[in-house]
């Protein structure tokens, strides 16, 4: 029998492939950024002068279809009413973000040690052992992991950067990894799981 060769791509090729597969699938609820933000936590510290709220202890934030969970969440609101949230995971825990795709029963779900949400830019940044998943109902469809993932809802594009910060027992090299489920006959064919070198040319702004 002929031997099979592991499928390998450059980071640029992977991102082009992943974005092509995800672009029609990650359009999140457009109305979410216009919704009120609600929060539950064990404690709250509010500073009216800076319009900043700091929630600690089993924090759950909801904003439309968005749900955010973490050990500590700091939320700031600017004079125009836009909200900016920083979510931190507790020791041996992970912070999470979940949002519904518009018009269908699909969800985007991300997790990391740190999550930053910017309602003005309509962007979410996952840092530290970051994972981004897409679910069709309750079924996992696609999954991507790396050191940093930036998901832009306006352009429907996400960027992934690998490195030592994403290293784990299952992935000691910290390389970017993606698994893409097959599409229906009406959709483009998806690739098999790929294993990539860390990014050297793709920068993610802090």
TrEMBL record:
Biased composition (Low complexity): 163-174
Main location (coarse class): periplasm
Region (Disordered): 163-206
Biased composition (Polar residues): 197-206
Ranges for domain Organic solvent tolerance-like N-terminal: 40-156
GO biological process, one term: Gram-negative-bacterium-type cell outer membrane assembly
Keywords carried by this UniProt record: Periplasm, Signal, Transport
Entry-linked InterPro entries: LPS_export_LptA (IPR052037), LptA (IPR014340), OstA-like_N (IPR005653)
Example of a GO MF term: lipopolysaccharide binding
Signal peptide: 1-28
Subcellular compartments: Periplasm
Gene Ontology CC terms: cell outer membrane; outer membrane-bounded periplasmic space
Assigned protein family: Belongs to the LptA family.
Functional summary from the UniProt entry: Involved in the assembly of lipopolysaccharide (LPS). Required for the translocation of LPS from the inner membrane to the outer membrane.
PANTHER family per UniProt: LIPOPOLYSACCHARIDE EXPORT SYSTEM PROTEIN LPTA
Self-association state and partner proteins as the record states: Component of the lipopolysaccharide transport and assembly complex.
Record-linked NCBIfam families: outer_YhbN_LptA
Protein name (record): Lipopolysaccharide export system protein LptA
Native organism: Malikia spinosa
